[in-house]
What we know:
The structure is a single chain. The chain is an all-alpha fold. It folds into 2 domains: 40-228, MFS general substrate transporter like domains (Growth Hormone, Chain: A); 242-456, Growth Hormone, Chain: A (Up-down Bundle). The protein is 73% helix and 0% strand.
Amino acid sequence: xxxxxxxxxxxxxxxxxxxxxxxxxxxxxxxxxxxxxxxxxxxxxxxxxxxxxxxxxxxxxxxxxxxxxxxxxxxxxxxxxxxxxxxxxxxxxxxxxxxxxxxxxxxxxxxxxxxxxxxxxxxxxxxxxxxxxxxxxxxxxxxxxxxxxxxxxxxxxxxxxxxxxxxxxxxxxxxxxxxxxxxxxxxxxxxxxxxxxxxxxxxxxxxxxxxxxxxxxxxxxxxxxxxxxxxxxxxxxxxxxxxxxxxxxxxxxxxxxxxxxxxxxxxxxxxxxxxxxxxxxxxxxxxxxxxxxxxxxxxxxxxxxxxxxxxxxxxxxxxxxxxxxxxxxxxxxxxxxxxxxxxxxxxxxxxxxxxxxxxxxxxxxxxxxxxxxxxxxxxxxxxxxxxxxxxxxxxxxxxxxxxxxxxxxxxxxxxxxxxxxxxxxxxxxxxxxxxxxxxxxxxxxxxxxxxxxxxx
Length: 456
């Protein structure tokens, strides 16, 4: 479906990227024609829609374990720490692949990378559907994480080829919102299908969705407008040294600030939605699976609403970036403090709903990190810088998933097949460790970035 933004909405205000680079630029050949500006328009939205269908599929695969955690524990006979290993490995592979995928997109193009991503997603989920023991299932989630890593950066690069530069931040926000549509499918459709049809039929059906998406991309996706494709009249400039490019990105305080913004804002909602939300709501709070699924749906809807809100605010002024980040961090920390300190460990449903709504702001706030990197790096380094930043939230998620799982096992009696509200309460306190570390780093780097550019 083609997405058309409101004509009155202004694009996100992003300072122009700096062009300084340690590698001297290659002087253009006098006879070479200048690169045409991306046109935007309906053709651009069509190309983006096809590309984003792969990202929606990836989010469905990524979040599928979030509604199947209890079923996975029963199927494989594992505890909380082993269960968290599924998501940890998947997220670890995703984070580790960000820079390699960015470089791969630069060399072979986003279309081929998206096709490869669909193949890996489908193969990994199909293997997961038929796995009956822990080790094969774990390997299949690693393959799935590798395919997932190839989607988001590819869609952003596709958008950069089709849309004018001023429109790219807005399209990035829309891409995140579209991904939440995949999360909504998981919480509404997949949860019911798993309960009704069972493990293997449900995950097999998800894997087979990849066939249709692969055909859509292979047959109809164009990487760039026709006007941008012209015969090569001169030998291409040598590709930059990979190590030098990564080091140049990392030397920028804006890149490091973006990584810590992404790290600190994304992981609470991510860890809750990917794995621990359903077990917490069902086992610790005594909700039915239907009620828990409804609250997870609220998380997705809140995420989409905050995405629109932050996009509108940031379109007015880029100075709103840091206030948004710090407000989201503070609200998340205070909200969880109230929930975890509630007497008896059973907060009322309105308070559970409130913290879930607050966590809906986590994902949209993490995209501010990409804006910091985009404003601090020249165009030729944007893919690498985005890959570095995009690792942050998933590293934080991995640390949180593992910490909660280990604490749940340590705080529960040996041999138990469920966890008490008290065990969940103390285990969820682990969130404050990465939250504190990330906040300190944001405040420290904020001053460095402000010294270089008062507009940030």
